[in-house]
Structures are given as structure tokens and as C-alpha cells.
Amino acid sequence: MAKVTRFSVSMEPGLLAAFDEQIARAGYDTRSHAIGDVLRAYLVGAEWQGGEGEVVGTVTLVYDPHAHDVERRLTDFQHQHHEAIACTTHVHLTEHDCLEVVVVRGSARLVSTLAEQIISSPGVKHGKLVCTAAVSRQP
Ligand code: NI
To answer: For the whole prediction, is pTM greater than 0.85?
Structure first.
């Protein structure tokens, strides 16, 4: 186990009770584990807002492969941005629906812009960007 630091925190009892109820519902084994996840989410958010350093995002898409020449256009787009697009996973969901997950890395601005362009492509029925970053490099 990694070295840990103990610290004390003061907060309103109602806030702590609500937090404890929520983390119990979510299945956390300890309050320390839950607070660690909250802090990492805060640090990832700061990376995205700060615009410094590299972040990574997954763009999840659902599209009809027969509509608007979407498959060819998405592939062309990914080739044009090959330095930022790390990989793609494709699942044939139904006869008329493909699920694709595109992993994009780079500055927050670049990842956000590429995700918007992918999601807004004609033929894409649904798309969502999930923002994250390498949290192990956080101090
Ligand atoms: Ni497919």
C-alpha cells in the first residue's frame, strides 16, 4: 500500500452526513477512499479548465452506418487528426446502429474541439465526451 497522510477536516455535520449516506449507497468501503476520488475528480477538472498539459477524453458515438456516408467521413477525420486520436473501438450494435468509442488526447482545447466536431457530424445520432486525465502524475 502506498504511503498515506492523515489529516483532519472540519465541516458542517449535515454536509458530512449527506456525504456518508451517498458514499454508502455508491458502495465505498471507507470515507478516505471516497474523498480520494473526490479530490482526483477535482484535480482532473482543474487540468481541463487550466488548459495546460495533456488530457484525454473518450468520445462515445452511436450512428447509422448507412446514413450520410458517416463511416467514411469519420474515418477520414480520424486520419486527418491521427496525432491526437489514439485509437477507436467499434461495435456493431444492431443492423442500423454502430457504437464507436474514440480516444482523443492532447490539450483540453484540442480534445474538446475534436470531440465537438465528431459528435456534430451528420449521421451521428448520439455522442458524448467523457473528460479525464492521467491522475498518477498529480502531486
Ligand atoms: Ni458497425
So the answer is: no
